[in-house]
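2024-03-11 09:14:02 INFO worker-7 job=invfold-0412 stage=load source=structure_tokens
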């Protein structure tokens, strides 16, 4: 998406797209486009302070004079995904932003470094990337790990969307909400580890609750009744 934004800035101003990359020729030379200056304190933990030259904006002043819809590149990268959707209303960037909003990442900063994301946020980011593809088989290993309870419903809606788009989604999961939502369940047991590995049931969640005798059936029945 950042490539698309850089290209839009370049086209609007008649300059090279490389100017709008904090890792290329448009970067502030004092902080090398990081926006921060790291000071090594020897025996103590290092300290990061805002670059005084670019004031944390990461770019040279010559870059910031170029505008797109009245905003410079540092102002655009400082937007949240939700704010960027209102700013970039068409084209490929908007399509990507819509997918990020769909997975619940609208609050993240557009220029936020990947190493600041939590495990759950990275999980959803991967899902947003995959949503661009069609006719694929997805195998997800406990996708609810690290997710807040409120995000589980959003995840289920996304899985439905993947299926509606013609994909096959296989989920390895212990979360009862995901089991109850599934089209088809394969229950492995009778226990875990060396006690597991046998297929004890296959069918719909309703059939599992009605006819299943496994521990999974008992917990799912209690969950649905609750």
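2024-03-11 09:14:09 INFO worker-7 stage=emit residues=226
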């Amino acid at each position: 998406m950042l490539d698309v934004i850089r290209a839009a800035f370049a086209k609007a101003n008649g300059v090279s797209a490389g100017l709008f990359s904090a890792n290329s020729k448009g970067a502030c030379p004092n902080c090398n486009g990081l926006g921060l200056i790291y000071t090594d304190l020897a025996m103590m933990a290092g300290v990061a302070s805002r670059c005084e030259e670019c004031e944390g904006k990461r770019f040279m002043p010559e870059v910031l004079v170029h505008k797109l819809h009245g905003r410079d590149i540092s102002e655009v990268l400082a937007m949240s995904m939700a704010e960027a959707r209102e700013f970039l209303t068409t084209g490929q960037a908007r399509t990507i932003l819509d997918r990020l909003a769909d997975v619940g990442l609208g609050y993240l900063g557009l220029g936020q470094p990947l190493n600041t994301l939590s495990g759950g946020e990275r999980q959803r980011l991967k899902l947003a990337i995959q949503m661009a593809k069609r006719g694929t088989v997805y195998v997800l290993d406990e996708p609810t790990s690290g997710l807040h309870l409120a995000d589980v419903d959003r995840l289920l809606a996304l899985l439905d969307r993947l299926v509606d788009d013609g994909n096959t989604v296989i989920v390895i999961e212990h979360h009862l909400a995901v089991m109850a939502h599934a089209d088809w369940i394969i229950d492995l047991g009778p226990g875990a580890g060396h006690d597991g590995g046998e297929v004890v049931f296959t069918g719909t969640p309703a059939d599992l609750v009605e006819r299943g005798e496994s521990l999974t059936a008992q917990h799912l029945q209690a969950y649905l009744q609750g």
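2024-03-11 09:14:09 INFO worker-7 stage=report msg="Residues 31 and 37 are 6 Å apart (CA to CA)."
2024-03-11 09:14:10 INFO worker-7 job finished
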